[in-house]
């Protein structure tokens, strides 16, 4: 998570910030595309440091998604205008991120504290997003619950470093302690994920929010991709935002030696291109470290094997619960949306309320979601060390 992200860009970039702060209304009133067309062409050279660049990427990615999906999946455009495409491309190149909304923007850099000094015990109520899209409280809840899942993972990330250090030092006691901390962190992530039910309406998520996370790769609504005017003459294709772009589960998989099937593994590795480069490097560094599984097996320690298996089981439980969430918010919500649409018939309504049929069975990253999630859950379970 970005530590205390910036919430304002320097004065020259006020036109971007004004549009970004007004996005939900501009999209719902179908005025965003007109506003973007009037936006001045701004250079990115006055952006200083990673924090300003990350905020610029967040702002431009949200404006881009709103611009693309303002009219729903049946009213897409083929060209992103130069005054948006060029600065978005430049900022993306500097950060090593793709020019599309990713998990790094949507969650990791899109949070702020309402009160800088909150009272004890209500830290989660003090959170808010920096930039928003249509979806109201459900969108806010979706972003911030995902934020809390990432936050719960922090002790687990630290435990990875401690575990690898313990392996290199041949310190069984420290390794056992690190594995206990990792299992506890994964369990806390599952508990945080359960809060989705309290803060996100499935109908709003499916019919309103989800389309704005959709990309232009493996998406039937935009089969040719998107031309970034002033950047490339040919269309470019990028996957939409996906939880698979979070480095957390990739890091856990690498430490625990989880091996996914060929198709799932190829998709997950492609999602690493959507991570900030230091995150990607961290995951790859874990991959190069000595095998934890081999250390546990060769030690013959029942205590280490039990701690290792507890981590794997916690990861299986997390992935199983993710399937429950996806079933509720996509599979069941899709069926209900389709039934509602059948009742409405051809009566006019806003395009974003229509079921986004192009991604009915797919994740916003482009994977066939149910098959993919069950596959990685099952391959995680296969990582248990038998007694």
What does this 3D model show about the protein?
It is a single chain. The chain has a single domain, classed as Methane Monooxygenase Hydroxylase, Chain G, domain 1, CATH 1.20.58. The protein is built from 17 helices and four strands. It has helices at residues 14-21, 23-28, 32-38, 49-69, 82-95, 103-108, 136-152, 154-169, 172-193, 196-199, 202-209, 247-256, 262-271, 277-288, 292-299, 302-344, 369-381, and strands at 79-80, 112-113, 127-128, 227-228. Strands 1-4 form a two-stranded parallel sheet. Strands 2-3 form a two-stranded antiparallel ribbon. The chain starts with 13 loop residues before the first helix and ends in a 6-residue tail after the last helix. Residues 348-353 have low confidence and may be disordered.
Features:
globular, two-stranded antiparallel ribbon, two-stranded parallel sheet, tryptophan catabolism, Methane Monooxygenase Hydroxylase, Chain G, domain 1, heme binding, mainly alpha, 387 residues
Class by helix and strand content?
A: mainly alpha
CATH architecture: Up-down Bundle
User: What's the rounded overall pLDDT mean?
Assistant: 92
The count of DSSP E runs of length 2 or more, i.e. the number of strands, is 4
The main pleated sheet reads as: 2 strands, parallel
Adjacency order of strands in the biggest sheet: 1-4
Q: Count every helix, treating DSSP H or I runs of 4 or more residues as helices.
A: 17
Shape: globular
Q: What is the N-to-C succession of helices and strands?
A: HHHHEHHEEHHHHHEHHHHHH
Rg over alpha carbons = 22 Å
CATH class: Mainly Alpha
Distance between the ends: 37 Å
Helix content: 55-70%
Kindly report the CATH topology.
Methane Monooxygenase Hydroxylase, Chain G, domain 1
Poorly predicted parts: 348-353
Beta-strand residue fraction = under 5%
Number of domains: 1
